[in-house]
Amino acid sequence: MLKCVENLVGDRGNPVQTFEDFRMIRTLFVSAAPRLILVAIIFSGVWSGVFTASESSNIAVVYALLATFFVYIAD
If you ran DSSP here, which 8-state letter would residue 34 be given? Predict the structure, then answer.
């Protein structure tokens, strides 16, 4: 199926990024860690029964605000 899509779309001149090494993967994972932690907090809290879905939205907002002020503005 992917080959069919490749044949239909073709090469549109998009830049191709080659795989350099695992340092690039580590760097990307570290930069995505705050976003991944947010998802983990929401799902683990609801699944474990610590808080409900409504409470998880409040916790997500508070975490997102804190992450914005302390992580993303510092960059």
Answer: H
Is residue 24 very low, low, confident or very high in pLDDT (cuts 50, 70, 90)?
confident
CB 38 within 8 A of CB 60: yes
Confidence of residue 55 (pLDDT cuts 50, 70, 90): very high
The Cα–Cα gap between 71 and 57 comes to: 20
pTM of the model: 0.60
The alpha carbon torsion through 47, 53, 55, 58 (nearest 10 deg) reads 110
Look up residue 73 and give its DSSP letter.
T
Separation of CA 74 from chain center: 19
Quick check: helix, strand or coil at residue 22?
helix
Q: Which two tokens stand for residue 48?
A: 């474990």
Specify whether the CB–CB gap between 6 and 13 falls below 8 A.
no
